[in-house]
């Protein structure tokens, strides 16, 4: 459905040629690289999280894939079409949501806007009503259907705008911060509908968001970009273990453990610390590249034997791993 090979996007930037007042008059042209070299493919029915820090190139990529911007170089195919050269034809096959920028008509009702899009996309009456019923069940559109857009709250507008982009049953949907500003109820409805529609209609979704919980709950695959390049492309759960090497093991004992006994459990190389996590329980943190959970469990059983009554291995969490990765990236830029 989506094929991107060696994508690059440069912008012309004018910088002051001199310092002081002359710099406002005399400028020199330079090029800034928003996307340096990106390649990936997305198949039918995939829900892919496209993440990165501010300025990484996420929105620029989405704009190129939807035909809003042209690329500087590279090969791009969306629904077997060049998105920039065949933008009008491609528009019938895709849906696009850009955060709080809605496509609703301010002075029309939600109903009139939906009817307008029905005509634009030439949706048969039967299909239109059927899809509207599905969207109504998920987003409770009946309550706002006859209201003017200008009288809707931000959450109601975003909900209606999101539903509008699914009205024509697009093959691919590009979602750029679709849940920003939404309350928990509407946000959950959006998440559930994305998964439902992808499973039922084999819809491909590219999901960009700074809310990592959205990515964690919806996407099975993640493409992480940094400074215009793909840094990771693969399974969501594997990303957590690749960028966060710290695992934890919680061991529960049949009686209280002393500080000395806790220290004995941290004597292995690769163990980074241990602390009480509850009544008669200890949480041991370790680097999976240096030691393994088997070694730590074996050490605990040999040392304390029957005192150990329960063991729980805690793997790195996706959201925590991405957060720490972004934090380290921001730290380097300071």
From TrEMBL:
<dbReference type="InterPro" id="IPR017871">
    <property type="entry name" value="ABC_transporter-like_CS"/>
</dbReference>
<keyword id="KW-0067">ATP-binding</keyword>
<dbReference type="GO" id="GO:0016887">
    <property type="term" value="F:ATP hydrolysis activity"/>
</dbReference>
<dbReference type="InterPro" id="IPR050763">
    <property type="entry name" value="ABC_transporter_ATP-binding"/>
</dbReference>
<dbReference type="Pfam" id="PF00005">
    <property type="entry name" value="ABC_tran"/>
</dbReference>
<protein>
    <submittedName>
        <fullName>ATP-binding transport protein NatA</fullName>
    </submittedName>
</protein>
<dbReference type="InterPro" id="IPR027417">
    <property type="entry name" value="P-loop_NTPase"/>
</dbReference>
<feature type="domain" description="ABC transporter">
    <location>
        <begin position="2"/>
        <end position="252"/>
    </location>
</feature>
<keyword id="KW-0547">Nucleotide-binding</keyword>
<dbReference type="InterPro" id="IPR003439">
    <property type="entry name" value="ABC_transporter-like_ATP-bd"/>
</dbReference>
<dbReference type="GO" id="GO:0005524">
    <property type="term" value="F:ATP binding"/>
</dbReference>
<keyword id="KW-0813">Transport</keyword>
<dbReference type="InterPro" id="IPR003593">
    <property type="entry name" value="AAA+_ATPase"/>
</dbReference>
């Amino acid at each position: 459905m989506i094929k991107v090979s060696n994508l690059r996007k440069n912008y012309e930037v004018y910088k002051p040629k001199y310092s002081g007042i002359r710099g406002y008059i005399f400028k020199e042209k330079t090029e800034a690289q928003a996307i340096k070299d990106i390649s990936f493919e997305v198949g039918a029915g995939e829900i892919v999280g496209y993440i990165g820090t501010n300025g990484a190139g996420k929105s620029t990529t989405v704009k190129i894939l939807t035909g809003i911007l042209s690329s500087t170089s590279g090969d791009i195919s969306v629904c077997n079409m060049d998105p920039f050269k065949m933008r009008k034809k491609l528009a019938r096959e895709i849906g696009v949501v850009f955060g709080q920028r809605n496509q609703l008509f301010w002075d029309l009702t939600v109903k009139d806007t939906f009817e307008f899009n029905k005509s634009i996309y030439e949706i048969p009456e039967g299909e239109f009503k059927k899809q509207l019923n599905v969207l109504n069940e998920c987003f409770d559109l009946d309550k706002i259907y006859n209201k003017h857009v200008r009288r809707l709250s931000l959450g109601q507008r975003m909900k209606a705008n999101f539903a509008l982009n699914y009205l024509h049953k697009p093959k691919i949907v590009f979602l750029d911060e679709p849940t920003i500003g939404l309350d928990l109820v509407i946000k959950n409805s959006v998440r559930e509908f994305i998964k439902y529609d992808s499973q039922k209609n084999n819809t491909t979704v590219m999901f960009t968001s700074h809310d990592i919980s959205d990515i964690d709950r919806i996407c099975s695959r993640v493409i992480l970009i940094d400074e215009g390049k793909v840094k990771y492309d693969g399974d969501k759960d594997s990303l957590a273990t690749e960028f966060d090497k710290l695992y934890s093991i919680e061991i529960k004992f049949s009686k209280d453990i002393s500080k000395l006994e806790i220290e004995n459990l941290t004597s292995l190389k690769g163990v980074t610390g241990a602390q009480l996590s509850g009544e008669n329980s200890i949480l041991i943190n370790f680097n999976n590249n240096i030691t393994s959970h088997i070694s730590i469990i074996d050490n605990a059983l040999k040392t304390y034997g029957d005192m150990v009554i329960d063991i729980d291995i805690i793997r790195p969490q996706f959201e925590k791993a991405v957060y720490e990765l972004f934090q380290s990236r921001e730290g380097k830029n300071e």
